[in-house]
Structures are given as C-alpha cells and as structure tokens.
Amino acid sequence: MAKRVAVVGAGPSGLATVKELLDEEHIPTCFEKAIEPGGVFRFGEQDGVVWESCRLTSSGPMTAFSDYPVRRHQTDHLLAGEYCDYLAQYAEALGVLRHLRLGTVVESVKPDPNGGWIVSSATTNGPRHEEQFDAVAICSGLHQHPHLPRYPGQRWV
Hints:
Shape: globular
Largest sheet: 4 strands, parallel
Strand content: 25-35%
Mean pLDDT: 88
CATH architecture: 3-Layer(bba) Sandwich
Low-confidence stretches: none
Radius of gyration: 16 Å
CATH topology: FAD/NAD(P)-binding domain
CATH class: Alpha Beta
Structural class: alpha/beta
Strand order of the largest sheet: 5-2-1-9
Number of helices: 3
Order of helices and strands: EHEEHEHEEEEE
C-alpha cells in the first residue's frame, strides 16, 4: 500500500530517497529550503558549507548514482557547482523534480495522535501549511545542526 512520505532536504540523500520511494510506488513530497536541489553543496546559500572552488573528494564516476552516471568528460573530481548541476539533472531525468517543494522550510515535525506525522512548512512569501504523512525521512545533510526530539515510548534502533 502506497504511503505518503515527507522527505526533508533535497541534497544527494534526499533526492535518492525520493527516487527510491517512487520506485516502491510511494508518494513522496520533498521539502527543500533552497530554490534548487543540492543541499549543503550549494555555494552561496545561507547554510551551505562549500566555497566556490570546492571540489568533491571522489571522482565523478565514483560520486555518481549507479542508475545515473556522470557525463563521459566528467572523470575528474567535480566542483561543487558541477555536482549541484548533476543532482538537478538526476532529479529531472528520474522524475524526482516534480516531487520537490523548493523554497520551503520545514518548521516542525510532530507525531500525529491518529498515526503518522504532521509536518509544518512555510515558503518565504507564503502561508504556513500543515500536512499529514505516514512517514518522514530526514535528509538534511551531514553538516546541519540536528534536533533530535524525544517523545514517550521512543526507542532508538
């Protein structure tokens, strides 16, 4: 049975999560605060952690997803901007892009008393929205500041 899944973050892990959820016939909605995919690899974003000349530490073929290789000429270590371009192309080619809500900040994720989760989000110029999801995947990146909520009965596996 298809589940509605909120995915927080449209960096590499968020995009791959959306793609895999689609492959399993779920209904993902990916929230990304930036105006384009790329996550922490976006130069110039307020919370980005890369600099303009930053290069990835692995080559293009080793960095690419197995179902979407880099272009043949991209055998060197990609610049962060080139990697963001690759991620946007990946999202477009594999049908992920239409499931992204760019420019949208997740303000909170709370357990729904009836099951699932309530995700509160807002766009820069728009109103706050609350939506119910069956599951939530937090893909906010290695270099973000996590807030790990605690609630009664919680078990960490």
